[in-house]
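Appendix B. Worked example

We walk through a single record from start to finish. Start with the input: the chain for YqaJ viral recombinase family protein, Romboutsia timonensis, length 339.
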Amino acid sequence: MRKYLDANIIENTKDMPKNEWLIKRKCGIGGSDASSILGFNPYKSSMAVYIDKICYAHLLKDLKGEKVSQNSDCHIEKDLIDKFISQDNEISYKMELGNKLKSFVASEFMLKTGKKVRNINGILRNDKYPFAIANIDRAVVGEKAFLECKVTNSFNKKEWEKTIPIHYQIQMNHYMAVSGATHCYVAVLIGNEELVIHKLERDKEMIDEIMKLEEMFWNNCILGDKLPMPDGSNDYSKTLDILYKDSKEEELILFEAESILERYDEVVKLYKDFEKEKKAIEQYLKLQMQNYEIAYVGDRKITWKKQVRNTIDTTRLKKEHPEIANKFTKTTISRVLKI
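Next comes the structure step. The output line below is what the pipeline stores for this chain.
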């Protein structure tokens, strides 16, 4: 079996079709999954990772070729599969363009630094972390390091100028854990006009914490088939609405929820206070702008413009044309939580 540093290359991806690669990467926790599990990924929730992996866990095998999971049936409801898995399997134009630009970023990195990089063309696994996989963009020749190529728009320039965003730091440390690399480089093309390069050293404490939480997630949620802990995401709410859409008119005593409800009351009060402060700030800005539509505070642009909105007067429609109103009335059923 081919190796890269401390990792085994378990799949050769050089000529692998993109759709097949998308399936293969579901058979373990990847770098971007790590930040989702830890709650730092702004683009993907831990629930999305759970749904993404649960139907493919049985495909993961250990180094001896034995199955790690016995979950051979995907019991997740079709609505959830359609919401998470089907969408994730789609190869978007943005994804294809980003992959093509990575070659340009790698070339620019070599030009700027004088370092050489090469393709690995494989999915990595380390026997120390059988639940984890890694797909690195390039290996840096002559160093125990890899290069990660990123492409972002100009709106994220401040986020990248001086440091690496935390969710990408987690991703890089995940890759260093799996590969055994001592450091890595992250080259990001910002707005197709500027290349920023960062070097990140291996952080043992961060790696230990990341891999501990990943292993807990894998054992409890994927192999143990338990839902992840609530994370406040819309994904989690929608999943609960789908899984528990049917209700029964019976009562339940929750013995361990008193402290949670106390915290809920505290959060509600804080939310109201912050909402009031937010409105006061908005009112102050409107007071300063008066009849002006556009204002600037440093490089921040503020607008207060007229907005036309057309709505149907349903009360009048029901009164004057009840047959039409009834014809286009749609009834939906959902469960509403009241505290």
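Two observations about the output. Residues 291 and 304 are 9 Å apart (CA to CA). Residues 258-289 form the longest helix (32 residues).
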